Amino acid sequence: MVAFGAFIFGNVNAQLADGTICPDWTGTDINGNSWTLYDVLDSGKPAIIDISATWCGPCWNYHQGGALEEAYEQYGPDGSDELMIFWIEGDGSTNNADLLGTGVNTIGDWTANTNFPIIDDASIGAAMGIPSGNGPYPTVYLVCPNRTITNIGTASAEQIYEFASAATCAVATEPVDPALTSFTTTGDGCDGVYSATVEFMNLGTDALTSATVTATGCSNCPVSQDWSGSLSSYEQSNVTVTGIEVTGTQNVEFEITSNGDANIANNFGNTFLLASDHTTHFKVTIQTDRWPGETTWDLKDGSGSTVMSGGPYGDGTGAEQDAELVFEEFSVDGDLGCWEFTINDSYGDGMNASQYGLEDGSTTVETVDTDGNNYTFYSYDGSYEFDADSGRGNVNAVSVEEADALQSSMNVFPNPINADSKLAFTLTSANTVSYQVVDLLGKVVVSENLGTLPAGARSEELNIENLESGIYMIQLTAGASTASMKLTLAK
């Protein structure tokens, strides 16, 4: 099984990219029924296609969770009849015995309690970008009536329905119906000027010949860009809106409009664009995926010199292991001006682990001003892949010396912690003090208010009696200053 595991994650880039046209195929399920994908799509129903292998552990875990069975029961032909689901055995070396759980390359009986068609045909998986035996497994695609494909990962039944009901997967019913499908932004948080490339689709039954995309919510908004051409039903195009000026953090909304539009509900999208002033007091929070050894980062100052870096995490090998929660708070010297934070992934898939049926990672970088206010410098939610991803911001102030003093004085002993562990710190002045303990999922599991304490060295008992063994972060707050460190609890 070790060899199989290496194959599961060895060909990530073989998957069909989101938005590409899915090829048609015809397959016969294990009950002798013939299915043609485009016939299903032409009936106005999207299709969910799970390409798996009988020996694949993550596939079995998803199968046992019952999300596809639940979605098929509620929304399939015997439910509301809004979508179709297929399970494709993607390894040509397996056989019917493996599907029934009696073969040598299987984990269990895949047919038990399965209410949707199972098709044992690796050529279908290969046509959809998943080479026979190589994976990645499971790959779960949503194919919309317009033939476009989206990798939805191991979604729940509710999420499957949400994906299948999205504007990008709707059926054309009205004469005029432009739909905003996605957008990407580029720009510099140092000067606060961005551009946005906005993708849209004709969800109307008539050809779409003109439209306008408008940005609102920015400092110089509204900013618009016209488009003209000719799009048939389900065809897509894009326009680029330039010169979007941002001050601080602003929620910028994009809207597409066209004369006679019968459905404005699918016209909108929004994102937060950043152009805040920052200090050299940084907080870096990283929830890695299951490959923490692939993650490194660096922070460069206005002259391009690296002033701080971190990772790789875990054991540093890049092998699959437990996810790790990283919190680093620091102040650094460097040339002021336009600074850049870059996070790197040595495998090239970022922390987008949901494509493997696992939890995505995330990264947030904040800066702290002299009043203790936090400003977002960089944010990543794990929803896309990257080799390297960056955020830039203008740094024109120095950090608070008091915060540095609190961080340098903070200690927990002993650590690994136990019932007798203490939290030690020194206050440079009287302040209200509290602390929080956060688990690997970012959930606050302990919150204690220590009240107003005088200046000087302190030692406080930790409230950890209800915690399970594991890795945690503790954040200490004294007035406007914060300090943090990692805790290990082994009961």
Compact description:
The protein is mainly beta and 491 residues long.
Topology:
Blueprint: H1 2-8, E1 26-28, E2 34-36, H2 37-42, E3 47-52, H3 57-65, H4 67-75, E4 84-89, H5 96-99, E5 118-120, H6 122-127, E6 139-143, E7 149-151, H7 157-165, E8 178-188, E9 193-202, E10 208-216, E11 223-231, E12 236-245, E13 248-257, E14 268-275, E15 277-279, E16 281-287, E17 295-300, E18 306-310, E19 325-331, E20 337-345, E21 362-368, E22 374-380, E23 388-397, H8 401-409, E24 411-413, E25 422-427, E26 431-438, E27 444-453, E28 456-461, E29 470-478, E30 481-489
Parallel strand pairs: 3-4, 4-5, 15-23
Antiparallel strand pairs: 1-2, 3-6, 6-7, 8-9, 9-12, 10-11, 10-13, 13-14, 16-19, 16-21, 17-18, 17-20, 20-23, 21-22, 24-25, 25-28, 26-27, 26-29, 29-30
Helix pairs in contact: 4-7
3D structure, described in words:
The chain is mainly beta and 491 residues long. It has four domains: 2-169, Glutaredoxin (3-Layer(aba) Sandwich), CATH 3.40.30.10; 178-275, Immunoglobulin-like (Sandwich), CATH 2.60.40.10; 277-399, Lipoxygenase-1 (Sandwich), CATH 2.60.60; 402-489, Immunoglobulin-like. The chain is built from eight helices and 30 strands. The strands form eight sheets. Strands 5-4-3-6-7 form a five-stranded mixed beta sheet. Strands 15-23-20-17-18 form a five-stranded mixed beta sheet, with no helix packed on it. Strands 11-10-13-14 form a four-stranded antiparallel beta sheet, with no helix packed on it. Helix 5 links the parallel strand 4 (84-89) and strand 5. Helix 4 crosses helix 7. It is globular, with a radius of gyration of 26 Å.
